[in-house]
Amino acid sequence: MDQAAVLPALLTTVGTLFVAELTDKDALFLLALATKTKASVVFASGAIAFTITTAIIVAVGSLLLTLVPVVAVKLAGGVIMLAYALWELRRSSTKEQEMDERERRLLEKDGRSAWSIFFAALVSLIALDLAGDATELLTVVLLARFDDVVVVFSGAVIGLVGATAVETLLGNRLGRVLSPKRIRYLSVAVFAVIGTTVIVTSLLGF
User: Fold this and answer.
1) Is 132 left (phi over 0), alpha (psi -120 to 50) or beta?
2) pTM for the predicted model, two decimal places
3) What gap in Å lies between CA 135 and CA 14, rounded to an integer?
4) What residue segments make up the domains of the chain, in order of their start?
5) Which pLDDT does position 101 carry in this prediction?
6) How far is the CA of 27 from the CAs of 3, 66, 129, in angstroms?
7) 174 falls in which pLDDT band (50, 70, 90)?
8) Is the CB of residue 165 less than 8 Å from the CB of residue 174?
9) CB 50, CB 164: distance < 8 Å
């Protein structure tokens, strides 16, 4: 990548992943966990989990881009993001989203040590992220757009860890603003805009 383009690419990746993570399913889990235990424990588990999953996603995405044309990856990513937004919108008209049983058990258990909560949260976040996460797809699309593993990995980690810091430090206060329903509506808006932008820029050759 041209040196002049590194900073804009890094800032775009950081900002995009930061906003996307605040509206992703991990956000609700982190917010809820931050109300039950020390913010430092939640932040550490989130920061480490997202660093690990981002490394895996970037590695897999780089391999994918050697097998599939970049334009195809971008277009597919944009279409899937729009589909994700529509799915979230449809789900918003039904009952409130509930946490997975594993997350609920983790939050409801009292008297656990900080280390026990840390490792349980770490495993849960890694599983959530790798089981099918919108930010995963977004990371691959950004990798296809900028074609720079270091920039995308660094930007994604900074953005995700930054979002984790906001979610854990604000805890209850942010949780009152970002209810499950509001998170889904924000998610719909964010991924509809991103998906449309990705498709349009790909078709125009940007």
Assistant:
1) left
2) 0.77
3) 12
4) 3-204
5) 55
6) 34, 32, 11
7) low
8) no
9) yes
